[in-house]
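Troubleshooting: if your tokenizer reports a length mismatch, compare against these two reference records.
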Amino acid sequence: MKLDSQAYLIFDGAMGTMLQKNGLNPGQPPEVFNMTRPEVIEGIHREYIQAGSQVITTNTFGALEGKIKPTGYSVEEVIQSAVAIARKAAGSQLVALDIGPTGELLEPIGDVTFEEAYELFARQVKAAAITGEADLVLIETFFDLEEARAAIQAVKDHSSLPVICTFTFQKQGKTMMGYDVATVATALAEYGADGIGINCSVGPSEMLPFVETLVNSTQLPILVQPNAGLPKIVDGQTVYDIEPQEFARFIKAMADLGVKWFGGCCGTTPEFIRAIRKVLSE
């Protein structure tokens, strides 16, 4: 199977939401399950495949030195295990190496240099490249263009894999760093992204106008992965306020705008992916 920009392509949904249902403790790095409970990760991947996902995202969103080293494992061990698990579960479907932001601010606002961020991302890419089992790289939930540039460059320098980069926008349509949708679209194309998009932060109804702007701002393939609505705290637990069918209705509206690639972010489960598959096949 190849990454096709002309056909609908369904990515998976949230990993963290599923892991919380499978015993992940608060504050525990989800990536450790690649080493300690690989059968749980494989099972989640398989649930998404059975629901209709054609792209499985590795459990590596936060696989960075600062988070992984205290666990006693190395970044390389965690990533290589994650890719192998995903490949086993995915079968003929695609595997995307998942890369999240560092969680730190780059200079001049923060203390992390561009070069330091680049090296963190390069380490992840090189670890995955050793396995040769990933089909693409998904750089997701970014909000800083310089950090995204470092991540994209690291992928381009250390692999031949296509790279998709998705940003997260706040309710007013700008990232935490103040970039609007059109600015992000232009910059990511210049950096060499093979696909761009929007994920996380808000639900599909709030995301719809951002998606319309993005469609009008780029010729690149677009990936959209909303949250399952807006998060709320109920009895100490984070819950989301949109059901799969309503979620899928907004996905159909985005598809009508020309978007081809879809998945889910925080709060989504295989039921959301099943609903996406159903609405896109109607």
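Reference record two:
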Amino acid sequence: MIFDMKELIAKRLIELRGAAGREETAKAIRISVSALQMYENAQRIPKDEIKVRIANHYKKTVQEIFFDPEPHETCGDGRQSATSDRKEVG
């Protein structure tokens, strides 16, 4: 699962960077070119502080770039109330 997320994040970062060069992008985010390369090659996931800078650079949310946009099975879709899945006992 973690490997899949690294791959997904890497793909998103490459798509967001588009035709911009790695050097200029890394400089704008204030990270090294090698760090950006590792993120884009799915070798590492940035620390939270770097995630925020990357999201700000691309004018996206951290959630959009670094987290699964689909609700998890245990979380539901946000439309269900906390008590709607409880059954009465007795």
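Descriptive notes for reference record two:
- The first helix runs from residue 2 to 17.
- Residues 78-88 have pLDDT under 50 and may be disordered.
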